[in-house]
Amino acid sequence: MLRRLFATAVTVAAVGFSAVQAAPTQAAPTQAAVPEAAGAVFPSDIVRQDFPDPDVFEQDGTWYAYSTNTPDLGHVPVATAPSAEGPWTTRGDAMPGGPAASWAQSGRTWAPDVYPNSDGTYTLTYTAWHKASGRECIGVATATAPRGPFTPVGTEPLICPLDLGGAIDANTFVDRDGTRYLVWKNDGNAVGKPSTLWLTKTTDNGKTLAGGNVALLSSNGIAEAPDLVQRDGRYLLFFSTNGYNDCNYRTTYATASTLAGPWSVAQRPLLTTQSFDGNVCGPGGADFVGDKVFLHGWVNGSRHLYVGDVGWANDWPIVRGSRVRTEAESGQLNHCVLRENSAGASDGKAVGYIDFADSWVENRVFAPVAGGYTLHVGYANGSQGTASHGLSINGTPQGSVSYPFTGWNQWRESSVRVTLQAGWNTVRLSKGTLYTEVDYLELQ
Fold first, then answer.
1. Residues 6+ away with beta carbon under 8 Å from 237
2. Is-contact 414 383, C-beta < 8 A?
3. Cα 397 from Cα 403, distance rounded (Å)
4. Is the peptide bond preceding residue 116 cis, with omega within 30 degrees of 0?
5. At CA 367, angle to CA 366 and CA 370, rounded to 5?
6. Distance between CA atoms of 118 and 407, rounded to whole angstroms?
7. What would the pLDDT profile of 219-237 be if each residue is shown by its tens digit?
8. Which one of 107, 232, 241, 334 has the fewest beta carbons within 10 angstroms of its own beta carbon?
């Protein structure tokens, strides 16, 4: 099965599940021609200044992005672009009057969520500094244009459970039946209590609560910045863990077949500094918009806005540039051997004896978009010289993979650029020179 790197620290009272489903077994179309491979493509840094906790949508050909307050851009910074990739232009403050003066004070206006309503208005749900308690609570504002100005609604917060540490990070979700909800977090880690991601029904364009709070999942550490997405077969709840102010921040997710749960947390995070090979530091605050993901990354004390490509492999998310692991033994083997109890190998298994003219191991990998990727192969080579395997993608040769000597059961990684079609691709490693065992494939 496809497996993502690195373990998650969040716990939930639900059964475990694999981060990515096994690939389907049908054959992929054959590529007619293979352009020169370009290698991995990582998310692009599209706002190169502090623009954290992004919320993004597209309307009438314009993309709008909102962020946590910054000294340069105001209470609710807003930026626009003609496409997801940009160019992006910061446009100042979407709520220039600040949060509701009756209960909030300026200085900590965080994680805005802007939703375009069917009547042509816009609802902003924001986190602000609660005067009376010093905690954070969630408020609402409205506007008649996406760039504002947004005006706060009401004289009290919309959500403010002070006994649970307050409330932050609201996310609007509208189910297919039209029911509208807010997903939010009680700020438990700020007061030494568990943090829970909650689901609350709303009405009146999100300005009024309409039902009780349903707990989705909890953590004794940090679980924040929820983003709820509905795919054909499941709900996916994305969230961030660890502290945002270094490279340990990361994005993971949980899934359920109904909003009531049970929710199962992915076995491995979706986005980490390591899964991007350090090209994005602390990828978090993710907002999934169709086939794009917007997130922030830590850059010299600021959090820049990035955008990356997303694919949905049987409704499981794949983000271009973030490593996805496929165990070699999960594929089809021809005239070679599944070697169990392989010391040091991923999952303790590897494929060996790829030693004959008709020997090969074949796996399926998923590419969010067509283009260049990097294929990393975990291997051990004890044949006292540099070995190789022939490499083909969707039945078309794409050169070979070279394996410097390591010694048997001494696992290393060899990398090669490949060109893939959008969707599922078949990767075959066949007999080359000398002898090498294969542990896993990682697509990036």
1. 183, 197, 216, 217, 226, 227, 228, 229, 253, 254, 255, 256, 263
2. no
3. 18
4. no
5. 145
6. 64
7. 999 999 999 999 987 999 9
8. 232
